[in-house]
Specification:
Blueprint (H helix, E strand, L loop, with lengths): L2 H7 L9 E5 L6 E4 L4 E4 L20 E6 L14 E5 L15 H6 L1 H7 L3 E4 L3 E3 L2 E4 L2 E7 L7 H13 L3 E6 L9 H7 L11 E2 L2 E2 L5 E2 L13 E4 L4 E4 L14 H16 L4 E4 L28 H16 L4 E7 L1 H9 L7 E2 L3 H4 L7 H15 L9 E4 L7 H5 L1 H13 L3 E5 L31 H4 L6 H11 L3 H4 L3 E6 L3 E6 L7 E8 L5 E3 L13 E7 L7 E3 L3 E3 L4 E7 L4
Parallel strand pairs: 5-6, 5-20, 6-10, 10-16, 16-17, 19-20
Antiparallel strand pairs: 1-2, 1-21, 2-3, 4-17, 4-18, 7-9, 11-15, 12-13, 14-15, 21-22, 22-23, 23-28, 24-27, 25-26, 25-28
Length: 576
């Protein structure tokens, strides 16, 4: 943490002093401490904090990343786009069997379009044994019969999505397949060319002559990552369930086969992919090495991961240069520099920090730390990358369940107004509170009024203060020049509030102040700035609020926000 950040966190500076994160279109990111006039290049100090499902536990960062090639402005929708993640089986039922399906999704495309999103991202749709939801794929080129009867239904879905002016991304799981996949069955019997498609080892002999696994590697659940196969008489590696054998990405045969999978779906009209579990792709070449306890040195973050994902990007470019590649990776900041070395074909990790890292005890200070970290790391990245701010995920509890509805609403406002791409898991726009992670237990989206705790789409649509209505207001704002630019200046930051101004260059462009209270206490603050990169006037027009108010003009000299409150106000660029 920089000296100025530490002083601010300890409350030793007067309230008028501000730490500012300044983002510019030229990607000149720096900290500016207005009280001292200090400037510090963000690239000089990268803060490495790590976390997972709990709010502040120190484990690796869970992240998303995106990259696409430099092209015309028409093809750069992803720079400021909103991706809407849909789990088909829990979204909308079109045939009355109580499970979501493609026909139900097609019927709800008007709803998705009216949300103001740019693309739909479908969670795994492939044929699966369902031993681990839909992540144990038994055929990468066939559809799960629960959601569609044939590939023709998928083609119909793609056509309808494009008719509505939306893009389509597919989830793929390249780290492992189902143990019922034809590739695995062929590999078990050493059939060419599938013999080396998976990670096999004969094990080591113990003192009694029996066979033991070759090392101490563990699954993500802490069990042995090796299972003996009688047919092949070898152990196979699985970093997840034993029904999900790891694919061997050192195999050139596998790499060629997977490129054919990518080609297959792109020929069916897919606009890009989201790839899961990228940090697990390649393991150390020497399978006899054991790992120190709790440190996956040989099973995660191997340097070959970057080369493999870059080969996917290059292959996708050869089919559709405007396609998009999203990655699910960890250790966000450190990986950014690695992927930046593959500028033409690499992939930039971004983050899911907003809903996972922020703690109420920290409020605006924690938010500032997160955004400082990402802006520092982004310094390395070229034009054809953008940061992705994700809120919610298929394998995580709802944000409102974890943080409460008010905080979830403030986080959503923050996510939707930061520079870069936004990603929303379906249902988060409604502020849903279910905690189930299994699609067999997670209820369908509440389209109509019911007796449940969550308000339905039908109930929220006419309510201008509902999470759904606020979400739509925010996606509309993203079409304004100030939000299409990456320019941003922070204003008030304290134990409760995080705030910033979004603006575009030009005296006739409207500017916007965003302020959210993510702390535990009500906070009244002075947001007026007469000096610095962006001037903020005393009075501004209220555009969006997630709480009841009759105000149309807001006095920024004394703006009071309760915990969970968030506002967006506008003012002309030539106010001072």
């Amino acid at each position: 943490m920089s000296e100025t950040r530490m002083r601010r966190a300890n409350g030793s500076q007067p309230p008028s002093d501000r730490v500012q994160v300044v983002w510019s279109d030229e990607q000149q990111y720096h900290l500016e401490y207005s009280g001292q006039g200090e400037k510090m290049p963000l690239r000089d100090t990268i803060v490495m904090l790590m976390f997972a499902g709990s709010l502040i536990s120190l484990v690796p960062i869970l992240a998303l990343g995106i990259a696409a090639p430099e092209s015309s402005s028409e093809s750069l929708w992803w720079k400021n786009g909103v991706v809407y993640e849909v789990e088909p089986v829990s979204f909308a039922d079109g045939n009355g069997d109580a499970y979501g399906d493609f026909q139900g999704l097609i019927a709800k495309l008007p709803y998705i379009r009216d949300l103001g999103v740019s693309a739909i991202r479908l969670n795994p749709i492939f044929r699966s044994q369902l031993s681990s939801e839909t992540f144990d794929i038994s055929d990468y080129r066939d559809i799960n019969p629960v959601i569609a009867n044939s590939i023709d239904e998928f083609d119909q879905l793609v056509s309808k999505i494009h008719e509505f002016g939306l893009h389509l991304l597919l989830d793929l799981v390249p780290n492992h397949s189902s143990d019922n996949h034809a590739w695995f069955n062929a590999s078990r019997h050493r059939q060419s060319p599938y013999d080396d498609f998976y990670v096999w080892h004969g094990g080591i002999r113990d003192s009694a002559g029996g066979r033991q696994s070759p090392n101490n590697w563990l699954t993500v659940d802490g069990q042995s990552a090796w299972t003996w196969d009688d047919s092949r008489e070898q152990f196979y590696l699985h970093q997840f369930s034993q029904h999900q054998p790891d694919l061997n990405w050192r195999s050139e045969n596998l790499q060629k086969q997977f490129l054919k999978v990518i080609t297959f779906w792109m020929k069916h009209g897919v606009d890009g992919f989201h790839m899961w579990n990228i940090d697990h792709l390649v393991e150390a070449e020497d399978l006899t090495k054991s790992e120190p306890e709790g440190r996956p040195l040989f099973t995660q973050h191997q340097p070959e991961n970057v080369k493999i994902t870059s080969s996917w990007r290059k292959h996708m470019d050869s089919i559709d240069p405007n396609s998009v590649l999203l990655l699910d990776v960890k250790d966000t900041e450190s990986l950014m520099a690695k992927w930046a070395s593959y500028q033409a074909t690499g992939v930039m990790p971004a983050n899911r920090l907003l809903s996972e890292q922020i703690a109420l005890e920290c409020g605006g200070i924690c938010v500032n730390e997160v955004i400082e970290r990402i802006s520092r790391a982004s310094y390395h990245l070229p034009f054809n990358y953008t940061v992705t701010w994700a809120l919610g995920e298929i394998n995580l509890p709802r944000v409102a369940y974890e943080h409460g509805r008010k905080t979830a609403s403030a986080l959503q406002m923050l996510q939707m107004t930061l520079p870069g791409m936004a990603s929303t898991c379906s249902g988060e726009e409604l502020g849903l509170t279910d905690s189930t992670l299994s699609w067999t237990q997670r209820p369908l989206m509440p389209w109509f009024k019911s007796s449940g705790d969550d308000r339905s789409v039908e109930e929220q649509e006419p309510d201008r203060l509902s999470p759904l209505s606020v979400y739509k207001q925010l996606t509309r704002l993203r079409q304004e020049p100030a939000f299409k630019s990456i320019r941003m200046n922070t204003t008030v930051i304290n134990e409760n509030v995080y705030s910033f101004v979004r603006y575009a260059v030009g005296k006739f462009y409207t500017r916007y102040l965003v302020a959210v209270n993510l702390g535990l206490k009500e906070s009244e603050d002075d947001y007026v700035m007469q000096a610095g990169p962006v001037a903020v006037p005393q009075n501004a027009t209220l555009l969006v609020a997630n709480f009841p108010t009759d105000l149309k003009i807001v006095n920024l000299k004394k703006l009071r926000l309760k915990p969970g409150d968030g506002v967006v106000v506008e003012f002309p660029s030539n106010t001072l």
